[in-house]
């Protein structure tokens, strides 16, 4: 066999897996134009990550007996959202004997439970509304350590309310952008009108996909009349919008979505037209800032990201931060101008990363970029605890341990 024949054979057999790969990718692109498949890719709600544990037994996830009350919240369009009310550990300690005497598991009337009463009847209670990322349930991955970090700053006062969006875990329905906003509004309504916690004592926390939900609901409430503005909004690993995200995102860190097509602008823009749920966080946060500035409302936003985040590149946070800062100024500011101001005024924390704080007469927009923390591990870091305490104390200086 001649050298040319050998080369031809190698090319022939090598081209088969390449052709198969291209074909499978073409099928993937075709499926992505359908709403159902696209929904599964964006939200990953079918991936439970808690299949072998019962969410109605929170003790199997490391909680104390009846520290967590599983219950449901009904949305305006009739969906049932599965939720956890998590007691801060010091408050639990004070009432442990009474709490462990109560029945365990899911409750149909949360108002009858001691945990709820401790939240409802304490005028100094603080509540964090937790909006998790794509995939999994309230108990998946690093979410449980995240809850502990959120309440660690004041373990006698800071309660956490976390829930699964429609279509996730035990919640009914199917996810969509409109649906998830309705879900978040239902949770806010429960917090303010059932639990009786004023907005000034509520903080919104979102991570990954949850940042888009957090920004959207914060904007929705800030532009209504009268506006509702919370003690603060903490965003961990936000993204600019779905179109920008899919240009770099890989499913499970491996399978690219549209990144191979980013080199072909016309084709890339054409395929973007099929994106159903756009989650325009950059625009929503700008509208939120403009509304609160116009109304003279006090607002606080923290944007936290790790440079080694391989799921959502940390540059998304830089862009979200810029859109927020730009909206806070009547004359605006260019991205390059803001970058120059960062060089002049941001705090360099060495291996701890950097912090840039932008202040106006009405609000604070804070960008914290860590060197490490990945996409999920960061949720259990002290930086999250500090962000919570900073905003609660800013809203009420008397709130301290």
Automatic annotation (TrEMBL):
Any GO BP annotation: antibiotic biosynthetic process
Organism, as annotated: Penicillium bovifimosum
Entry protein name: AB hydrolase-1 domain-containing protein
Keywords in alphabetical order: Membrane, Transmembrane, Transmembrane helix
UniProt domain AB hydrolase-1: residue ranges: 128-309
Transmembrane segments: 12-32
Alphabetical list of Pfam families matching this protein: Abhydrolase_6 (PF12697)
Keyword Transmembrane: yes
Keyword Transmembrane: yes
Signal peptide residues on this chain, from the entry's feature table: none
SUPFAM superfamilies: alpha/beta-Hydrolases
Top-rank taxon: Eukaryota
């Amino acid at each position: 066999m001649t050298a040319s024949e050998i080369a031809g054979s190698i090319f022939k057999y090598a081209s088969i897996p390449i052709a198969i790969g291209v074909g499978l990718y073409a099928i993937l692109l075709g499926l992505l134009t359908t709403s159902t498949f696209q929904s599964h890719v964006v939200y990953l709600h079918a991936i439970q990550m808690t299949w072998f544990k019962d969410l109605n037994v929170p003790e199997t996830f490391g909680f104390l007996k009846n520290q967590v009350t599983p219950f449901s919240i009904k949305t305006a369009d009739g969906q049932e959202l599965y939720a956890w009310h998590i007691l801060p550990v010091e408050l639990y300690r004070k009432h442990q004997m009474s709490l462990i005497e109560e029945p365990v598991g899911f409750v149909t009337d949360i108002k009858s439970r001691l945990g709820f009463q401790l939240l409802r009847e304490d005028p100094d209670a603080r509540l964090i509304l937790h909006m998790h990322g794509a995939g999994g349930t309230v108990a998946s991955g690093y979410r449980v350590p995240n809850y502990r970090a959120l309440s660690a700053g004041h373990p006698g006062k800071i309660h956490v309310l976390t829930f699964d969006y429609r279509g996730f875990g035990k919640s009914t329905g199917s996810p969509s952008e409109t649906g998830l906003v309705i879900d978040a509004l239902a949770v806010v309504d429960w917090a303010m009108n059932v639990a009786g916690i004023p907005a000034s004592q509520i903080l919104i926390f979102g991570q990954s996909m949850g940042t888009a939900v957090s920004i959207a609901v914060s904007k929705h409430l800030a532009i209504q009349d009268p506006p509702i503005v919370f003690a603060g909004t903490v965003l961990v690993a936000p993204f600019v919008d779905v179109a920008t995200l899919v240009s770099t995102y890989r499913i499970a860190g491996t399978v690219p979505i549209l990144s191979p097509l980013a080199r072909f602008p016309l084709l890339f823009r054409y395929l973007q037209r099929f994106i159903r749920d756009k989650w325009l966080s950059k625009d929503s946060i700008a509208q939120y800032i403009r509304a609160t500035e116009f109304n003279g409302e006090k607002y606080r936003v923290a944007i936290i990201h790790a440079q080694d985040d391989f799921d959502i590149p940390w540059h998304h946070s830089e862009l979200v931060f810029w859109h927020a800062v730009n909206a806070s100024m009547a004359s605006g500011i260019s991205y390059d101008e803001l970058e120059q101001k960062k060089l002049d005024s941001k705090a360099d924390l060495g291996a701890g990363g950097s912090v840039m704080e932008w202040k106006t007469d009405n609000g604070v927009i804070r960008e914290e970029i860590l060197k490490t923390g990945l996409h999920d591990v960061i949720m259990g870091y002290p930086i999250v605890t500090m962000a919570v305490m900073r905003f609660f104390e800013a809203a009420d200086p008397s709130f301290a341990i």
